[in-house]
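Example record

Each entry pairs one chain with its bound ligand, EPU.
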Amino acid sequence: MSQITVTGGKPLVGRVDIKGAKNLVTKAMVAALLGHSASVLKDVPKISDVEVVSRLLQLHGVLITHDEDGVMHLDPSNVESARMVDIDAHAGSSRIPILFCGPLLHRLGEAFIPDLGGCHIGDRPIDFHLEVLRNFGAVIEKLPNGTRLSAPEGLKGAKVSLPYPSVGATEQVLLTSVLAEGITELSGAAIEPEIMDLIAILQKMGAVISVDTDRVIRVEGVERLEGYTHRALFDRNEAASWAAAALATQGDIFVGGARQPEMMTFLNVFRKVGGAFEIEDDGIRFYHPGGELNPVVIETDVHPGFMTDWQQPLVVALTQAKGLSIVHETVYENRFGFTDALNDMGAQIQIYRECLGGTPCRFGQRNFYHSAVISGPTALKAADIRVPDLRGGFSHMVAALAAEGTSNVSNVQLISRGYEHFLDKLAALGADFSYTE
Ligand code: EPU
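Structure tokens for the complex follow.
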């Protein structure tokens, strides 16, 4: 089990360069399955989620090669069924396999999907995905070790309505509808920038997709798609994470590759908390300008709201703001587990079942601790912590870097699911740490 021993209390200062978004790159890789020719994806980060998807694609006959740093070639000329036992070896390692369903049904007429993994931040059911696939004509059979799908009559365009604008279910509709016969109309779609980038990729491949107002996406199925060449959208979750790290450690971090348009909502909150930023052509500088930080009241939401993935790193910075901050998490029912460790380090964070925000959410009046009140500023002290999930783990690292004293953070390999060269970046920012495998 990998562990970092970190001596905190030192501002993080320097530059980190980020690549494509984990939450786009992995889906773009799956999209390559739909093409009749090879695709080229640029700015692919070396993270374990990309490795898992690469292995699953390779099991299905996709030839994957790399020529220079971050450039991936995916050749789907020989897509074939994989052995269930090989697929099953990847059970629990990622959530992306569910997105293989549509492309594999189109290419092979059948699909077997292992049981899913991903961060433990809520139940994370796949009911929307399965319902969507049934609408297209898929027949679904749950097996003890995964899910088997077939499409005896082919996949046909459908009118689909999502009860919640789920990112994954919207991607499911996109990846299934582009080659389905006829028209698909999706209402209640998620419209995150990563989804727009996936739509751009599919358009390059030959798909016909329009995004209307009010979360409606229309797709006219086509008979054939080719490969694409595409530079992935930057990882705005990683950019926001380093921004929060700069604030929490009173540091100054230039995030190369970050762009303003996809981060506007984050930038507003960052400024309200008291952080400063400068937008350059090649990235954004985030820094603590000195003085006190301010408390804020935020609700996480689907785009264009404040992303749930930004909440966890920001909470660490909010422990240093003067007064009471409130964070209402409306996307996942269980994303405040990471606050226990912060409280052990001296933070004062209380979590509540009530919706402590302007908008009552799906989780109100139920048994979910989905609102947090953070009282600050509190000095953070070193502790021994175990990383619970990707973003929570990053937050724990930031807390350890901000805290006085020496902390031991274990299970840190989880952070490499979503942050490329994490340790190298920490070193470049002047962090004082040692790493044991
Ligand atoms: N949901 C259902 N049923 C479904 C699908 C989703 O009830 O069939 C619920 C979920 O339980 C959750 C909500 O809908 O409460 C939103 O889930 P969504 O489907 O939007 O999330 P996802 O596609 O599983 C992606 C990212 C997450 C990110 C969310 C929200 C990937 C691989 N993951 O998850 O990223 O938080 O969208 O933007 O793209 C992360 O990067 O740390 C991360 C968790």
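The CA atoms of residues 112 and 143 lie 9 Å apart.
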